[in-house]
């Protein structure tokens, strides 16, 4: 089969890597294939009959077939054998041409079938390396290997449709981004978006929506019974295009989160000084910064009791003793009691004895111990070993 008469079919036969088929191209889909004496629908021998069992393929039998006809024969043969062939991954025009070609064909004799199957098998045997199919596959393979800026630029330049189903792109977005898209669109479009998401992702998206907006969107789902596939496709393309058109941002975190992380590591006096100044300049920003700050006093509010032993294991006992001995404010004392209550009773008793013997702790030593404990806890959060309660959960508990 000449290289320019080969079909790119994304097939999966359930075993082995069929990626080599990516080298096939639709080629010249010209006239219908010459027919022989056996209905393609009744090819009981299947692939085994064409490529094994002593059958000898005759290349001349397939010489007059177009690439389109050969592709139709192979697809029909594989479908007869029960193979799962994701033809929906082909561009729409190729799906159309392939289906039309299959509709024009009637009977293929066994000699022709064996020749086409043998030619196809030889082609697969000669594949040494398979590259991703198109720019979409190449970008998926290179994700994380090239810069995020380059990756986003190539996506934008190629266009959304280059990447297949736009809904697959949308489903990868975090729930908060999906909620932002839903708020910016009409209620009807948001209802379609909600309906196309997986149930878990849809539920998470609703959590990030204001109550009245969420109620309007969920009611609008009842009005989507007569929405056509073309409408859903256009909505997906429009939403995906908005996502791709977003400018690249230099920072992953919000300004409040970045400054909050800095002030978490700062000395308490400097932190209070900065927050006081922020209250005077921009009260809303100061609130966002406070939510991002994590202090020793907040451990009792944000950490789950069952996670305390995990934190204790990565800390040295002298640091714990120093921190607990230094904790004199009411909120700091509450955190110390929280830690002692949720560690082993023997360790808690030992720490209490050492704290009683320690006496007064210098501010620099105490704040350093606080920072070590907070840093260890944030490391555990970053690695996924523990999960802190959200600010919203804290507010609900306090309420």
General shape: elongated
Listing every helix as H and every strand as E from the N terminus to the C terminus, the arrangement reads HHHHHHHHHHHHHHHHHHHHHH
Estimate percent helicity: 55-70%
Strand-residue proportion: under 5%
Regions with pLDDT < 50 over 5+ consecutive residues? Answer: 1-56
Radius of gyration: 32 Å
The helix tally amounts to 22
Number of strands: 0
Give the terminus-to-terminus CA distance. 73 Å
Which sheet architecture does the biggest sheet show? Answer: none
Provide the number of structural domains.
3
Please state the structural category.
mainly alpha
Kindly report the average pLDDT value. 79
Briefly characterize the structure:
With 399 residues, the protein is mostly helical. The protein has 22 helices and no strands. It starts with 45 loop residues before the first helix and ends with a helix.
What features would you describe in this structure?
- The chain folds into 3 domains: 3-125, no CATH class; 165-244, Annexin V, domain 1 (Orthogonal Bundle), CATH 1.10.220; 294-398, Flagellar motor switch protein FliG, alpha-alpha superhelical domain (Annexin V, domain 1), CATH 1.10.220.
- The protein is built from 22 helices and no strands.
- The protein starts with 45 loop residues before the first helix and ends with a helix.
- It has 399 residues and is an all-alpha fold.
- Helix 5 packs antiparallel against helix 6, helix 8 runs antiparallel to helix 9 and helix 9 crosses helix 11.
- It has helices spanning 46-51, 67-80, 92-104, 110-125, 134-142, 148-158, 166-171, 175-184, 187-196, 199-207, 211-220, 229-244, 255-265, 268-281, 283-292, 299-302, 308-313, 317-326, 330-341, 345-358, 363-382, 391-398.
């Amino acid at each position: 089969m000449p290289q320019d008469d080969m079909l790119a079919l994304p097939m999966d036969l359930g075993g082995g890597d069929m990626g080599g088929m990516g080298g096939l191209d639709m080629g010249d889909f010209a006239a219908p294939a010459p027919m022989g004496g056996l209905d393609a629908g009744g090819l009981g021998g299947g692939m085994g009959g064409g490529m094994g069992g002593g059958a000898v393929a005759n290349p001349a039998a397939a010489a007059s077939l177009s690439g389109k006809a050969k592709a139709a024969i192979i697809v029909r043969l594989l479908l007869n054998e029960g193979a799962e062939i994701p033809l929906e991954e082909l561009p729409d025009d190729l799906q159309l041409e392939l289906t039309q070609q299959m509709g024009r064909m009637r009977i293929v004799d066994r000699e022709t079938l064996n020749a086409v199957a043998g030619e196809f098998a030889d082609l697969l045997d000669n594949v040494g390396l398979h590259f991703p199919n198109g720019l979409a596959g190449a970008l998926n393979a290179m994700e994380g290997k090239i810069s995020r800026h380059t990756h986003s630029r190539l996506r934008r330049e190629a266009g959304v449709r280059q990447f297949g189903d736009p809904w697959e792109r949308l489903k990868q977005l975090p729930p908060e981004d999906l909620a932002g898209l839903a708020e910016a669109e009409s209620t009807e479009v948001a209802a379609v978006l909600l309906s196309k998401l997986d149930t878990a992702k849809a539920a998470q998206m609703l959590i990030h929506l204001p109550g009245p907006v969420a109620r309007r969107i969920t009611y609008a789902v009842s009005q989507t019974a007569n929405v056509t596939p073309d409408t859903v496709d256009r909505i997906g393309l429009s939403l995906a295009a908005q996502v791709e058109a977003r400018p690249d941002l230099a920072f992953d975190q919000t300004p409040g989160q970045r400054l909050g992380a800095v002030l978490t590591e700062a000395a308490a006096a400097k932190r209070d000084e900065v927050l006081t100044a922020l209250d005077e300049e921009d009260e809303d920003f100061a609130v966002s910064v406070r939510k991002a700050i994590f202090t020793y006093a907040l451990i009792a509010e944000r950490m789950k009791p069952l996670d305390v032993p995990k934190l204790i294991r990565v800390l040295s006992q002298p640091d714990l003793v120093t921190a607990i001995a230094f904790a004199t404010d009411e909120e700091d004392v509450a955190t110390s009691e929280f830690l002692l209550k949720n560690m082993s009773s023997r360790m808690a008793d030992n720490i209490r004895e050492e704290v009683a013997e320690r006496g007064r702790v210098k501010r620099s030593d105490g704040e350093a111990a606080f920072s070590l404990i907070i840093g260890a806890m944030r490391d555990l959060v970053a690695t996924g070993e523990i999960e802190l309660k959200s600010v919203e959960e804290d507010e609900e508990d306090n309420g």
